[in-house]
């Protein structure tokens, strides 16, 4: 076949597609040859080792056989109004019955006496004697053609409109057969150490993988295909990750082109900042604060991610950064995801800044309309210098006189668009993003790749160790006795329940039902309930009673995951712990151990807990190192829970996996950074142009 197609060729130019086929493919987003070749198989089947019919064994086995097609006929089945095509295939060692349902065209396509390959599952014959193949994949044997449906590792495609996976496979084969030499402008940018193939070779082998020269390597080849670790998969993954790296470098360059407030940090400012400290900083806090202050003194807007495990002291660092900006005459806005967390930050800032002239204002959805108007007026006039708020800060009605610093807490709860919306309310304000969810390096490079990273890897002295244990339902009586002793000694207890249903109403009923059982087990102990639909005023009253001690046991959903600081809380009980991710469990566990009492986290596992889930929980119980836990959660569950992955505001990947392709990610970021530093980023962008490497954009907001 003479090569006639390029990657940009329309699919209508492929033999056999036609106008109607082109419209059908276009409706599925497949317009060009490249679109089709990036529509990769969803799995692969090994059909490379045919069996002799005489050796076939038990029903249910999936086999490939070849032989001569005998007694081919079409008939109607009266009972179910089916049209059947029946045949017998004989390979010299035996014969087997074959039947296809509602595919009458096969009677005219296949020829009695011809040789065919068949692949399918063995079933008991309807006669009760022997076996038969029902609806197998088929291919006419042609010694001059390379088989695409059988006799090899076969790619499996999802249906496209009315086109079956088999028909898509045939289209891909025809397309590759007509494809000319593939232009590969990215070839000079491929790191030699990765051993990546040329683009044309990669595309061909992804669709029709060559059989390994050594038959003993077949299992390894199939495993690599299934896990997307072949050189061809890694080539496409690298391209996607490189494109993202270029986007991030462009974001950095845009930020560096702007001029921010260069804060003054002299001895007088340092002395006033030290005056708000209730305790000595840890070495990690001092190191991170030095990094932040160095950024604030420069004219390039700071864009820094502050990672710190639960209880590592991020808030005090953010407060000191805010004090530096306030002393330079600018405003500071702190954005938090929930009203509960806003109130927590408000109380902390008010306490720490009490000796100063700065009083934090609050702006949240629950604020009465008149108060919102007053706060917004004060911010726009510059009279309010420091504000803590929820999404109300992002609304168009909120304006600032001179916004110098934006602090975003629990960044994974927000989208990139929301971050940009708040930054746009000032002229190149500094940005400090905080998260208590430790993030693996490969994930940080991708989701927060445009930010510099600071890590608080040290807990303040005096924090109590937390012992974590797994318990089954049979341990409930002993758990109740233990909890009663703890609360009699002045402790507080969190008892967390999963969101059992999508419906908040059903979840609320479920939590309240559980709470009644807890009250029965702990008769005479003050027990209360909070969940996502608890009114703000009621929730605040319950939390105040819990902190004060009139309520000793708080039954809740994960609404208490962040923002609750009760030093007397020393026990965390988590129902159906197997339904939570490790990162979320770590967040919940961080609600205790904040005082001097020995603290416990009890993981109650349900009867249906799998061995795999129990192993995960045992790993969680073995360590309190948030970064180790994050790596394990990332490995087993992927990035979603750690990042709010649907809110990145950047396109999805077709091939790349942040779990599988870490080496390619590191290399891609290095190539993009080197291009930016060397002034060749525009050339790299040009090499990437014309390729929809990242698929569809993810909605943000």
Overall shape: globular
Radius of gyration: 32 Å
Report low-confidence residues grouped into runs of 5 or more. Answer: 500-507, 641-649, 694-701
* Average residue pLDDT: 85
Question: Explain this structure to me?
Answer:
With about 700 residues, this protein is an alpha/beta fold. Among the domains are: about 50-150, Beta Barrel (OB fold (Dihydrolipoamide Acetyltransferase, E2P)); about 265-455, P-loop containing nucleotide triphosphate hydrolases (Rossmann fold, 3-Layer(aba) Sandwich), CATH 3.40.50.300; about 465-625, 3-Layer(aba) Sandwich (Rossmann fold). Helix content is about 35%, strand content about 20%. The strands form 4 sheets. Strands 11-12-10-13-14-9-15 form a 7-stranded parallel β-sheet, with helices on both faces. The radius of gyration is 32 Å and the shape is globular.
Topology:
Elements lengths: L17 H10 L5 H5 L5 E4 L15 E16 L4 E9 L4 E7 L4 H4 L5 E10 L6 E4 L2 E4 L12 E4 L8 H14 L20 H9 L10 H9 L4 H26 L10 H8 L8 H15 L5 E6 L5 H14 L3 E5 L3 H14 L8 E3 L5 H13 L4 E4 L13 E7 L6 H8 L6 E6 L5 H7 L4 E5 L9 E6 L4 H13 L3 E5 L7 H18 L5 E4 L5 H13 L4 E4 L12 E6 L7 H8 L9 E6 L6 H12 L3 H12 L2 H4 L18 H17 L2 H8 L13
Parallel strand pairs: 4-6, 9-14, 9-15, 10-12, 10-13, 11-12, 13-14, 16-21, 17-19, 17-20, 18-19, 20-21
Antiparallel strand pairs: 1-8, 2-3, 2-5, 3-4, 5-6, 5-7
Helix pairs in contact: 5-7, 7-22, 7-23, 8-10, 9-10, 22-23
